[in-house]
Amino acid sequence: MAQVTELIALRRSRPHTKGDCIVHISVTVNGTTHESDVEPRTLLVHYVREQLGLTGTNVGCDTSSCGACTLHLNGEAVKSCTVLAVQADGQHVATIESLEVDGVMHPMQTAFMENHGLQCGFCTPGMVMASISLLNENPNPTEEQVRLGLEGNLCRCTGYHNIVKSVLACASAATVSGSK
Ligand code: FES
Ligand code: FES
C-alpha cells in the first residue's frame, strides 16, 4: 500500500512532459478489448473514466480510503485508485456500466433501488460493485458480515442501514430464485 501512496504522490508532484514514456496496454473492459497507450503513472480509475469514457466509476479520495472507485478486476472488487492501468494489461475489468443488460438492471442495483440504499448516489457504483463481490464470496452473509465486507466503502448520506438492507435483500432474493 505504501508503494501505491508513493506513486500517487509522485503523480501529483510531477507534471506531464512530452518526454514521458508511454506504455501500450490491452485491457478487456466490460467485454470489449481496448488497445491503449498510457503513461506508466496512469491510475486504472483515470484510465476507465478519462480514456474509455466510463464515468460511472467515481473518484472520491484518490487515496484508497473511500471505495467510490471500486470496480472488478478479474472478478474481484478492487479500489481502482490503487491500481495502475499498466497493471490491468491483459486483465479483465468490469465497471458499473457492465451491470445493466438489455435495459435490465442487475439484481443488486434493483435491491438498492427498492430498499432506498442510496441518497446522493456518489458512493453507489462502488458500493454496488463491492456488494456483488461480497455476495460472490459469501452468498448468504449475516448483517454483521455485510457491514464488515463493506467497511472499505464510505457513504456520507445513508448511515449504511439501507445499504446493508439492500445487500441482504439481494442475497435473500438470489437464494429464493436459486441464482446469484
Ligand atoms: Fe479510490 Fe477513494 S477514490 S478509494
Ligand atoms: Fe451519498 Fe452514499 S449515497 S455518499
Q: What does this protein look like?
A:
The structure is a single chain. Helix content is 37%, strand content 14%. A hairpin with a 2-residue loop joins strand 3 and strand 4. Helix 3 crosses helix 6. The longest helix has 17 residues. It contains 6 helices and 5 strands, in the order αββαβββαααα. A 5-stranded mixed β-sheet has the order 2-1-5-3-4, with helices on both faces. The mean pLDDT is 91. The protein folds into 2 domains: 97 residues, Beta-grasp domain (Ubiquitin-like (UB roll), Roll), CATH 3.10.20; 71 residues, [2Fe-2S]-binding domain (DNA polymerase, domain 1, Orthogonal Bundle). The two termini are 32 Å apart. It has 180 residues and is of the alpha+beta class. The site of one FE2/S2 (inorganic) cluster has 11 residues, from loops.
Topology summary:
Blueprint: H1 2-13, E1 23-29, E2 32-38, H2 44-51, E3 70-73, E4 76-79, E5 92-94, H3 107-114, H4 124-137, H5 143-149, H6 161-177
Parallel strand pairs: 1-5
Antiparallel strand pairs: 1-2, 3-4, 3-5
This protein binds FE2/S2 (inorganic) cluster (2 copies).
What key phrases describe this protein's structure?
180 residues, 6 helices, 5 strands, five-stranded mixed beta sheet, binds FE2/S2 (inorganic) cluster, Ubiquitin-like (UB roll), alpha+beta, 2 domains, DNA polymerase, domain 1
Concise account of the structure shown:
By secondary structure, this protein is an alpha+beta fold.
Q: Indicate the low-confidence ranges by residue numbers.
A: none
- CATH level 1 name of the largest domain: Alpha Beta
> How do the helices and strands follow one another from N- to C-terminus?
HEEHEEEHHHH
Structural class: alpha+beta
- CATH second-level architecture of the largest domain: Roll
Distinct small molecules:
FE2/S2 (inorganic) cluster
- CATH topology heading of the largest domain: Ubiquitin-like (UB roll)
> In DSSP terms, counting alpha (H) and pi (I) runs of 4 or more, how many helices?
6
Mean pLDDT across residues: 91
What's the end-to-end separation, in Å? 32 Å
Query: What is the number of independent domains?
Result: 2
- Find the CATH superfamily of the largest domain: Beta-grasp domain
